[in-house]
Design goal:
The complex is a heterodimer of chains A (about 325) and B (about 260). Chain A is α/β, with parallel strands linked by helices and about 325 residues long. Helices cover about 40% and strands about 30% of the residues of chain A. In chain A, the strands form 3 sheets. In chain A, strands 6-7-8-3-9-10 form a 6-stranded mixed beta sheet, sandwiched between helices. Chain A has a 4-stranded antiparallel beta sheet with strand order 2-1-4-5, with helices on one face. A 4-stranded antiparallel beta sheet of chain A has the order 12-13-11-14, covered by helices on one side. Chain B has one domain. Classes of the chains: A alpha/beta (about 325), B mainly alpha (about 260).
Chain lengths: ~325, ~260
């Protein structure tokens, strides 16, 4: 459904994306991960025919974004990151305008506006002016306009950004319900979101595609180590040397001293296993006071640090 | 066509949803009214003086005394006001990001250009129509030549549409409204007064400059003369800048 081959985009001297290649099948939800400025938005803009690629090609439903721009645009629903809407229009007025631009007949427009308003939860603000809506509602209106003509491909640039937790859940629910016939590409910063929604994950960093994998595989790769923060009472050197003597522990770092003899330590496990029980038992057996313990979740930032470092090591080695 | 009309309606609604149209039209009528009053008062004075001499009285012409200078004045106010109507047409969409959605909908560049051009044209026609009050007032107290009024308004209309197409072009170029507005004003003024250097240029150059001057072509209309040469000039002017606008929008989709 979506084919991207060796896509490269340069703005003058700077390269936004370079040599990105991936595919998405019909019905697939593809997660786009990457730090800010990685090239996610640029890729999406090329796919939606807003920006031309410098080289390489992108096709949607067999149509090239450069040569058959109009055909591509008929088939794609797009939600840009900052949700640019016409603030002087009412929600219904705006959706009606979008419907006309998408070439929908009056009857279809009426029907679809009703349907998407219900799906996206904008029916209770239908007559309100968009400029006066909250961020959450604008996001929904943005989603509603993308869905309006029931497009085959949906491209959503950070659809849950700026929403409150309840709205995030609702939008995710909505996205999941949209899958099936449609192909969806969504970009996000939030790692769990990807595992919840997507069948495939693509990670780009500094314009390069570094991972194209399933969330399960990705998680497995990330779980190769586990980190713990522990708060422990006792003599500092004795504690550290004891912990380091454990075979399951890869490294121990002293972060700071909370009280006179209470220390904050960061422990990395050697392999992919939960070492919390083991640590707590051995610490207590040794007679140290275990004051607290937190498992450190791998955040996206950590993933990046890890993946990007791996990349650099490979390149340098 | 349907899409072009949708953009036309949306753009027109914006002019009136925001206070732009009201402010611009009000200022235009105030200024135009002031000029009209001045011209009329002066013509009145001259007429009084001419009463003593029946020969000069016959020389007096309402068309030359009031209408012609009035149309000239209106054209100058238009030069000042049109850039303010056109500068936001595409710049604002780019600045606020709405262009990103607009240009990813299945609409052609011409849908966007013509929709916006005609919407601005409609506001302009509404603005110009308000000044029809002056010839109507003249009609009540004197007898202005209907043909001269018609040709003057036709000239103003054509010139205004030409300004709009040029403003639209500058608005397509970037996201800064001030830059678009100032460029439109600058080039508009330049096209208006380019004929001034004719006396110092070689005959051929002079002739060319005269032909591309907005003002030279307008003078006939103001006098009450409709020459196809002038009509064609304004049409070409508009079409040229509309075409350039479409190229600019299209170039956003060229490989770069």
């Amino acid at each position: 459904m979506i084919e991207v081959q060796n896509l490269t985009k340069q703005y003058g001297e700077t390269t936004a994306i370079s040599d990105v290649t991936f595919q998405a099948e019909q019905g697939e939800i593809l997660g786009f991960l990457g730090p800010n400025g990685a090239g996610k938005t640029t890729t999406m803009r090329i796919l939606t025919c807003f920006l031309p690629p410098t080289s390489g090609r992108a096709r949607i439903a067999g149509f090239d974004v450069l040569e058959d721009s109009l055909e591509v645009r008929k088939r794609v629903g797009y939600l840009p990151e900052n949700v640019p809407l016409y603030h002087d229009l009412s929600v219904v007025g705006y959706l009606d305008f979008v419907g006309k631009l998408k070439g929908m007949s009056k009857q279809t427009r009426m029907r679809r506006i009703g349907e998407v308003s219900e799906e996206c939860g904008t029916d209770d603000v239908a007559e309100r002016t968009i400029g006066k809506l909250s961020k959450g509602y604008r996001q929904r209106v943005g989603l509603a306009q993308a869905l309006l003509n029931d497009p085959e491909v949906l491209i959503l640039d950070e659809p849950t950004i700026g929403l409150d937790p309840k709205q995030i859940l609702e939008i995710r629910q909505l996205i999941r319900s949209l899958a099936g016939r449609r192909t969806i590409i969504l970009s996000t910063h939030i790692l769990p979101e990807v595992s919840l929604l997507c069948q495939r994950v693509i990670i780009i960093n500094k314009g390069k595609l570094i991972i194209d994998d399933t969330p399960e595989n990705l998680k497995y790769r990330l779980r190769s180590t586990m980190s713990l923060d522990i708060l422990i009472r006792g003599p500092k050197e004795a504690i550290i040397s004891h912990l380091q003597s454990l075979p399951e522990v890869e490294s121990v770092a002293h972060k700071d001293t909370a009280a006179e003899d209470t220390h904050n330590l960061r422990i990395d496990s050697a392999e992919n296993r939960d070492i919390r029980e083991l640590i707590s038992r051995s610490v207590v057996e040794k007679g140290f006071g275990l004051m607290g313990m937190t498992a450190i979740e791998m955040s996206l930032e950590d993933v990046f640090v890890q993946l990007v470092t791996e990349e650099d090591t490979i390149r340098n080695g | 066509m349907v899409k072009m009309i949708a953009i036309y309606k949306r753009e027109l609604a914006y002019f009136f949803n925001s206070i732009i149209a009201y402010v611009v039209i009000t200022i235009f009528i105030l200024l135009a009214g002031y000029f009209f009053y001045n011209l009329l008062a002066y013509f009145n004075l001259i007429s009084m003086q001419a009463m003593q001499n029946p020969y000069t009285a016959r020389q007096l012409s309402l068309t030359q005394g009031v209408l012609q200078p009035l149309f000239g004045n209106l054209s100058i106010i238009m030069l000042l006001i049109m850039p303010l109507l056109t500068m936001r047409l595409l710049s604002e969409e780019r600045k606020s990001g709405t262009a990103e959605l607009l240009f990813t909908y299945p609409v052609t560049d011409w849908d966007v250009i013509l929709g916006k051009y005609l919407a601005t044209g409609t506001v302009f026609v509404a603005m110009l129509a308000m000044t029809l009050l002056y010839p109507l007032l003249l009609q009540k107290y004197a007898s202005p030549e209907g043909g001269a009024v018609f040709s003057g308004y036709l000239g103003l209309f054509l010139m205004g549409m030409a300004f709009i197409s040029m403003g639209l072009f500058f608005s397509c170029l970037g996201e800064n409204q001030i830059v678009a507005g100032v460029s439109t004003f600058g080039f508009g003024l330049f096209f208006l007064i380019i004929g001034w250097i004719t006396p110092f240029a070689s005959p051929t150059t002079g002739k060319v400059l005269e032909q591309i001057s907005i003002l030279v072509h307008f003078e006939n209309f103001a006098k009450g003369v409709i020459d196809t040469n002038d009509v064609v000039y304004y049409l070409i002017f508009s079409v040229f800048f509309l075409f350039l606008s479409s190229r600019v929008l299209e170039s956003n989709r060229w490989r770069s």
